[in-house]
Design a protein that fits this description.
CATH architecture of the largest domain: 3-Layer(bba) Sandwich
Number of strands: 28
Shape: globular
Strand content: 25-35%
Distance between the termini: 59 Å
CATH superfamily of the largest domain: FAD/NAD(P)-binding domain
Structural class: alpha+beta
CATH topology of the largest domain: FAD/NAD(P)-binding domain
Largest sheet: 8 strands, mixed
Number of domains: 3
Length: 556
């Protein structure tokens, strides 16, 4: 039972010691913004042994449920940060979505139809719980200093970092950040201080969010209606959240008055039309929103880096906003840690920008297509959409065109300069640049999951025959200072051992298209860097240098 009301928590402000000193203190990394992205960023960096100063201009968590859909990949990341299970325990898990047109169901889909995954396709969990759990994890980390009511008022680029002016209730002070990471939201003050803008498309439509408390026996599924009888010519989306909270999104049209539409006398009749006059519920939170699909031209500006909504924004259809922001954090943290330690060149930070700009473009493309399908703006586009919906009930080809929000999946970084291209034939999706797949495995300690064994460093995954042992890490690390973890994977029925896991259902070999001696090099963020049909230490070392952007060593 949850005993903390995260909507009422007020975090203490403490007078900063810096006000007693004239010389700015130096910090390796300063993160601005303690939302889901900023907190995840701080935790990722702390796990890489990087001290972090996290600044937030408020002293509370987010108001209302806001972002609620968190994807399997985000849960995998939070598992690595030791908060995934807590999110799971509180959240509502779901894999199934249903699509309705007018008064009938036309399609049903399962986002994770195969078994053998630790986490579901999605959980629904109010953003204030997410922030609360992340904040508590951050507060327990000695390497994270979290300051509330500390507003970043100015930033100035220096040759070796950023000079930051911070306003507090007791006055202003300056600090020096080797690196500043702006996770300060869609209106990003830091972005404005640099006179940078996000570019893209703003959609001329308005939507009403109503969170209601209601006891109902609807299944934990995503329900989406096109042109339902209770809200004609528009769309409606329904999601279940914890604590008997239900999220309903109503499309209203561009002409809707945002002031009038949030009034109870306008909201309640819409809800009654959905649930019936006898339904008992209470309003928890109401908001009107419009949205844009846009991003900054560049996520890196010298020693200032942008992540989450500060860098990119999408429509809420597809749950791509917060999820892509958390994926920004896992991409950046290991790179920044290695650069700070002097083990990788500055060029590695450039790849954060290029890789996550690519991912943002993919999200924006999918989000834009979803929005165009959901909210047609011409008679022709509406006719096309409605024809597709009618055909989809009986024709599978039409279902591929139905777009009620292509739901968030992690980007495959196909063209990343950190990838070593395949030189041998492989089947499946785990190409260089893809996120590693999970699978049930057995270790000496018992049954576990493959992703939980990977840790925070580069990992070599070596598939073995039943009695083989993996290549030693020492053999792979000869001549360089980057730690490598080696995990041997034996087939079902074999024995586990030190550094050796058993593929107890054969799913790891299936998902990695592996046979004995197949080898994968995985980055610290669990993306595939390279793969081979047999392990060659020299090839592994060259791929490692490639993944570190150490071009001079790759070509030497």
């Amino acid at each position: 039972m949850e005993t903390i009301d995260y909507q009422k928590v007020v975090f203490p402000y403490h007078r900063p010691e810096e006000l007693n000193h004239d010389k700015p203190r130096r910090h390796p990394v300063v993160v601005v913004g303690a939302g889901p992205v900023g907190l995840s960023m701080a935790l990722e960096l702390a796990q890489q042994q990087v001290p972090v100063l996290l600044l937030d201009d408020d002293d509370r968590l987010s108001t209302g449920s806001r972002a609620i859909c968190f994807s399997k990949r985000t849960l995998d990341i939070w598992d690595r940060l030791a908060v995934g299970q807590r999110m799971m325990d509180k959240g509502v898990s779901w894999n199934v979505g249903k699509v309705f047109f007018r008064d009938e169901q036309i399609w049903q889909f399962d986002l994770l139809p195969e078994h053998g995954h630790r986490r579901p396709a999605f959980i629904n969990l109010q953003q204030y719980y997410v922030e609360g759990y992340l904040q508590e994890a951050a507060a327990a980390q000695e390497l994270i200093t979290l300051r509330w009511r500390h507003e970043v008022a100015a930033v100035r680029q220096l040759a070796d970092g950023v000079l930051v002016t911070v306003n507090t209730p007791d006055g202003s002070f300056e600090l020096h950040a080797d690196w500043l990471i702006a996770c300060d939201g869609a209106r990003s003050p830091v972005r404005k201080m640099l006179k940078q803008e996000s570019h893209g498309r703003t959609f001329r439509d308005r939507f009403l969010i109503a969170d209601i408390r209601m006891e109902a026996d609807f299944p934990s599924e995503r329900w989406f209606w096109f042109d339902p009888p209770f809200h004609p010519n528009q769309s409606v989306l329904l999601h279940r959240q914890p604590d008997n909270i239900w999220r309903i999104d109503f499309q209203l049209g561009w002409e809707a008055d945002p002031v009038e539409e949030v009034k109870p006398e306008r909201v309640l009749p819409r809800l009654r039309a959905v649930f019936g006059d006898s339904a008992e519920f209470s309003l928890e939170w109401v908001s009107i929103y419009t949205f844009s699909c846009l991003r900054m031209d560049h996520f890196r500006h010298g020693r200032i880096l942008f992540a989450g909504d500060a860098a990119h924004g999408v429509s809420p259809f597809g749950a791509r906003g917060a999820n892509s922001g958390v994926q920004d954090t896992e991409n950046l943290a290991w790179k920044l840690a290695l650069v700070l330690a002097g083990k990788a060149p500055d060029a590695l930070i450039d790849t954060y920008a290029t890789e996550r700009e690519y991912a943002a473009d993919e999200n924006i493309l999918n989000s834009t297509r979803s929005t165009d399908f959901i909210t047609p703006k011409s008679d022709i586009s509406r006719l096309f959409r409605n024809t597709v919906l009618k055909l989809s009930k009986q024709h599978s080809f039409a279902r591929t065109l139905v777009n009620s929000g292509r739901l968030s999946v992690p980007a495959t970084l196909h063209h990343s300069p950190l990838n070593t291209p395949d030189t041998q034939q492989f089947a499946g999706k785990l190409v260089p640049g893809a996120v590693a797949a999970d699978a049930p495995i057995t270790t000496l300690e018992g049954d576990h999951w493959l992703l939980s064994q990977l840790g925070q460093q580069f990992t070599v995954l070596q598939f073995l025959a039943a009695h083989e042992t993996p290549t030693s890490a020492d053999a792979l690390q000869a001549g360089h200072d980057i730690p490598i973890k080696v995990i041997g994977v034996r087939p079902a029925g074999a024995a586990a051992g030190p550094g050796i896991v058993v593929d107890r259902e054969g799913l790891a070999a299936q998902r990695y298209d592996a046979q004995p001696h197949t080898t994968y090099l995985l980055r610290p963020d669990q993306h595939v860097a390279a793969r081979w049909r047999a392990l060659d230490p020299a090839s592994v070392r060259a791929a490692l240098m490639q993944a570190l952007a150490r071009e001079e060593e790759v070509t030497a």
